[in-house]
Model the fold of this input.
Amino acid sequence: MATKILVTGGTGYIGSHTVVELQNAGFEVVIIDNLSNSNIGVLDGIEQITGIRPAFVEGDVCDKTTLNALFEAHSDIKGIINFAASKAVGESVEKPLKYYSNNLVSLINLLDMMPHYGVKGIVFSSSCTVYGEPDVNPIDETAPIKVATSPYGNTKQISEEIINDYIRSGAAIKSIILRYFNPVGAHPSALIGELPNGVPNNLIPYLTQTAAGIRKQLTVFGNDYNTPDGSCIRDFIDVVDLAKAHVVAMRRMLENDQTEAVEVFNLGTGRGLSVLELIDAFQRATGVAVPYVIGERRAGDIEQIWAEPTKANTVLGWRAEMPIEDTMRHAWAWQLHLQNK
Ligand code: NAD
Ligand code: UFG
Done:
């Protein structure tokens, strides 16, 4: 019988790609999502790609009644991947309580219920934002955690502490914490991808919308940083590569291969790419021009950060494989799909 996994936030960007990879790997998936930042149509995309429509509960992970009912109905859930969270850095500064409440109460509810329902482990979506501005690059998992620069970033730091404290207290569960660098791209089928929500804050959705003529021009936020071309550097990780890491992590957790009850992995390519290099990669890969101007630095931006992914490469046996040009082509195909809908 297939092993059943609960994916919270499973109709979201990273969640939907992970559901595809879990189903392709033979897992049975139950999604819970309150559709606060996604829509029900994502299930159609998942079904078209995999031939399987995952079980879906529309509900809030912060609501214990809903969660209890879900675990009663699916008493054989063995693992959880917790994507459900609010993730807009700027909004978190405006509405900190929304972020502390949504991101922390949801996690606490899940942790609290796991032992009772015999759920063995939880994979948690963290972020390289916990490192702040690194002292050295590439940055590995032993680097110090810096003071968070936003309530959103703080929820990731606190979530990691909550998981550690709970398991240290003797709770009979395990956890794998995954620190994502910058997830980009879409499924190669162009049937699922990142859903735009108003004017995008993130680079790739803004770039693809500009290439499509929806936005007049892309502003590169600063070219006077201490980097080779003056623009910021990030580790752009393909979302399908990222999704696959969750399948490997889940197997490791359920097969009791963990050497520690809580393990932390960076998920990145190990390669830093500047904003200008990324624009260039997009233009080369798609042949589509992206009008851009150089603007002021964006407040709060980190100058440069990229991952040391050796731990994930060796311990998980996972590696980011997608060439950036392919990732850019997939992001563009997804943009075109959204317009033709
Ligand atoms: P997303 O917004 O696309 O997906 C999150 C999903 O969770 C959405 O479908 C939303 O409707 C749902 N959700 C939110 N709160 C919920 C709740 N209380 N109950 C039920 N459903 C809820 O975001 P994403 O980019 O797929 O991110 C997934 C996870 O990865 C988040 O925890 C995010 O903080 C983390 N992360 C994302 C990035 C990134 O750049 N995308 C980087 C690092 C970490
Ligand atoms: N950028 C531009 N122009 C834009 C948008 C972005 O030049 O219109 C630049 C930014 O200044 C930055 C780079 O592109 O240098 C990447 O910016 P994003 O907003 O795409 O991503 P961030 O690295 O700022 O943050 C993202 C997520 C956070 C997460 C972090 C680490 O938004 O939630 O990655 O995972 F915490």
